[in-house]
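Known limitations

Structure tokens in this collection are predictions and should be treated as such. Users comparing against experimental data should check residue numbering before alignment. To illustrate the layout, the record for SAM-dependent methyltransferase is reproduced below. The input appears on top and the generated tokens appear beneath it.
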Amino acid sequence: MFNQIRLSHWNEAMRSQLALPLRIVLWNGQQLDFSQEVPRVTIRVPSPSALRYLLSPSLYNLGSAYVEGAIEVSGRANDMIAVVNALARAGMHRQRGLAARIIRLLGSRHTRKQDAEAIQYHYDVSNDFYRAWLDPSMVYSCAYFETGAEDLATAQRKKIDHILAKIDLRPGQTLLDIGCGWGALVIRAAERFGARCVGVTLSENQALLARERVERAGLSHLVEIRLQDYRDVAGHFDRITSVGMFEHVGVAQLPAYFRRINELLAPNGVAMNHGLTSTDVQHRGTPYGGGRFIHRYVFPHGELAHLGTVIRCMQEGGLEVRDVENLRRHYARTCAIWTENFEANAERIRQLTDPKRFRIWHVYLAGCTYAFEHDWISVYQVVCGKAGLDPATIPWSRRYMYAAPAGRLTSADLQTSS
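Generated tokens:
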């Protein structure tokens, strides 16, 4: 009874602030509508004990309640995220700093074992799970929409070509891809440039499928896929890429991460880091408990640094920043398409994973779309090289990044470059 009285007061307070296309259905059949508009989102509260999630409506509390099955939420994911964000914004003001402190305490160590377990938790769901909503090449990072009209597969191919152009990859050079995913970038680099590539990942599922794809493409003589921590890679490479991986490194470890890239980079080599960043200069999580939700359910031990910190840590690692590009708009579009694909293939995806993980990814993808659209998080491509080099080795302009792409090498070219 006490919680119901609190709910009545909460409902009156919320309705005075918000007009939402939301209906709340209680265990006794009572309905609470938040506007005259037809509800696009319905929250079902199956028991009085579940009221506590509504009465403290942070993104973490409501997201956890949904994922754990304590409440039921129906509607399109984008509508669900918009409604829940409005509730959290109206009901919370102090959780952001608290969540950031919790995340820093939990995610500070980043041992090899801890990092491997975190990667396996996120990526070793099943390859079929990711195949159901990614593009055919299974590129799980921000696409590049040159005009905004591209389909996802085209935009992902353009992203890879954009990266290869930025690092000025030349035929026959060596390339290390840190966090190679399912191998799309190294396969493209070998196909177009005859580059001799090493891709490393900590995900067994990714490594197995990437090796199969390399073999099917006839590129085994040029591409090696390793199940290996980047800290254990040896040798020198003309070019190094890291796409969607450094979020797992940890803010405190970033100088050492970039120092290792510097050690692996050949003289006059070029590296590029493509990764998510916080738009909060203190590296705090996304507002209203969203960062805490992602840390618990999606990316254990993941940490986002501000762009300023990334650039400082690159310099501390002995690298000179040469080019920085913001792709926030591109990632908002990418996540929106992933969400559409996820919902369009919902029945198939339910068969590929358990209900809890389905709910996690359902709200996570839509939540990321919202976060990028509202500048809570961003994504940058940063091109760098060894600090202190003769400036004559650096191009005069960025024109080379946007020149007409090189033609695909013939099979004879590929054999010659091996």
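For this record: The longest strand covers residues 265-278. Residues 150 and 288 are 34 Å apart (CA to CA). Please report discrepancies through the issue tracker.
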